[in-house]
Design the sequence.
């Protein structure tokens, strides 16, 4: 691998590297020339891990890089880096919306060459959204918001611990806030000595940060002030720094404490206690505390149901929130209405505008499997383009098929020849938080004549030969429901196009995955 950087005078790429990290600059290319560095998002000094957003020149998409800097001659650091890379590779099989998917792991001799100052690279999906550090830069968050932000990340940690993995959520610059308002581990790569208890401490530290704007663990970024310490060496409770409800303050503090009495030591316990505290906080979040010095502070702060101060900015925010809630309510009612129309609109027992493709009849001497009873749509944790042979067609728009808007679409390239002349096909993969059994897949598409196969996969990045066809059908234009009577539980489902529509091009507007009871 050659590490290159942009010459400041000529603008051309020139060799770089060495024991230092000055070669890690925007424009530099690492990973056998595949990844161009775009912007740095922090440094985890504990592992000398530099966190970058980069451009994958081969797949033409942005990725998150955890770049481990160091020299192979430093035996201790090289050994630590190998352990971190091994743990990241094990996490590649783990899929959850609370963690970016690990795409690749580069090590010395496998994408990284000796003498350039790198010990390894963890490549993950890029997580759109906002830095956690930027989120709390101006002020801490309201208690209820902090709790709800943390819950998806805590859920990811719990699932990972069940699978025998440690995620490494104990550094704030590794975490980002998704556009949906949830925390996500964006730069995977746990410390070599990390244990599940460190993840629990990390979650408690993140909650502490959201509530106070301060970081309570060693090794945090210089941009964030450290949590104050009492004379006997204990971390000051969040409620002593901000008007934070005692329930959430206690969750944060108990997660950080190593005592076996009263401490929160497992992710399952933390997730349960966090949910209970969030519900309690949401019941009182609109009640204003009586502050000291107001003449009503005997016995310390109390909660009051007195009407809030008339504040124009607050009223405006409330109006926006109420409007958004009303729009959402109308949307839900419209959706329910459409379901009722579909259900009652055709007395002949048809399916309205949806063409249903049933399973083929069983062969002679065999009995048809029972038709699975649908339980409702299941939203994927992630949707990506599945294109194992050839360059990507429309990777950036793959998530359009599950955004609820038929006007936004994912589309294939326009091919000169029909499949499989140039390649066997192309499709989209839906990754779910857990394995589930599906009753059908409903596809809304304007591309009549497109032939698709519904496949399941054993992992998030399988070869086509490793996937299994569980049903197939021809899209009629509009809504096509393909039933899956033989589907086994799976975490990864692929809609695979084997024949393109008119003009050797196909589009998918919406795809719904209907879970079986």
Sequence:
């Amino acid at each position: 691998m050659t590490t290159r950087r942009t010459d400041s005078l000529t603008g051309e790429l020139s060799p770089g590297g060495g024991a230092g990290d000055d070669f890690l600059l925007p424009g530099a290319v690492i990973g056998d020339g595949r990844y161009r560095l775009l912007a740095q998002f922090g440094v985890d000094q504990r592992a000398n891990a530099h966190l970058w957003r980069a451009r994958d020149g081969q797949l033409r998409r942005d990725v998150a890089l955890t770049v481990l800097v160091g020299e192979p001659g430093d035996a201790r650091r090289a050994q630590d880096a190998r352990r971190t890379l091994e743990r990241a590779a094990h996490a590649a099989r783990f899929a959850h919306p609370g963690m970016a998917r690990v795409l690749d792991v580069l090590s010395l001799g496998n994408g990284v060459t000796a003498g350039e100052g790198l010990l390894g690279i963890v490549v993950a999906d890029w997580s759109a959204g906002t830095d956690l550090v930027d989120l709390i830069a101006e002020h801490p968050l309201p208690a209820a918001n902090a709790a709800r932000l943390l819950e998806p990340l805590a859920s990811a940690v719990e699932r990972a611990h069940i699978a025998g993995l440690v995620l490494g959520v104990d550094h704030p610059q590794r975490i980002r806030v998704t556009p949906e308002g949830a925390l996500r581990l964006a730069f995977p790569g746990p410390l070599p000595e990390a244990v599940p208890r460190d993840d629990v401490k990390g979650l408690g530290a993140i909650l502490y940060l959201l509530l106070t704007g301060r970081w309570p663990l060693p090794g945090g970024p210089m941009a964030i002030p450290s949590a104050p310490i009492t004379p006997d060496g204990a971390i000051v409770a969040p409620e002593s720094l901000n008007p934070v409800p005692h329930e959430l303050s206690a969750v944060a503090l108990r997660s950080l404490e190593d005592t076996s009495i009263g401490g929160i030591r497992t992710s399952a316990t933390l997730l349960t206690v966090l949910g209970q505290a969030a519900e309690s906080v949401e019941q009182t979040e609109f009640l204003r505390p009586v502050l000291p010095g107001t003449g009503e502070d005997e016995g310390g702060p109390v909660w009051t149901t007195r009407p809030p101060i008339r504040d124009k900015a607050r009223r405006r925010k409330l109006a926006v929130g109420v409007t958004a809630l009303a729009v959402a309510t109308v949307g839900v009612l419209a959706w329910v209405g459409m379901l009722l129309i579909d259900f009652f609109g055709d007395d002949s027992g048809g399916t309205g505008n949806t063409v249903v493709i049933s399973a083929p009849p069983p062969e002679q001497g065999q009995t048809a499997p029972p038709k699975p009873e649908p339980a409702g749509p299941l939203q994927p944790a992630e949707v990506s383009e599945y294109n194992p042979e050839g360059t990507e067609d429309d990777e950036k728009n793959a998530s359009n098929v599950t955004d609820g808007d038929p006007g936004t679409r994912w589309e294939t390239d326009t091919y000169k020849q029909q499949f499989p002349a140039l390649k066997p096909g192309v499709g989209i993969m839906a990754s779910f938080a857990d394995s589930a059994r599906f009753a059908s897949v409903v596809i809304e598409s304007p591309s009549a004549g497109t032939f698709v196969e519904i496949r399941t996969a054993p992992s998030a990045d399988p070869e086509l030969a490793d996937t299994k066809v569980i049903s197939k059908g021809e899209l009629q234009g509009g809504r096509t429901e393909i039933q899956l009577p033989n589907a086994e539980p799976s975490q990864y489902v692929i809609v695979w196009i084997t024949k393109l529509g008119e003009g050797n091009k196909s589009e998918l507007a919406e795809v719904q995955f209907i879970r079986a009871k």
Observations:
- Confidence is low (pLDDT under 50) at residues 1-20, 286-312, 341-352.
- The chain has four domains: 4-125, 130-288, 311-352, 374-516.
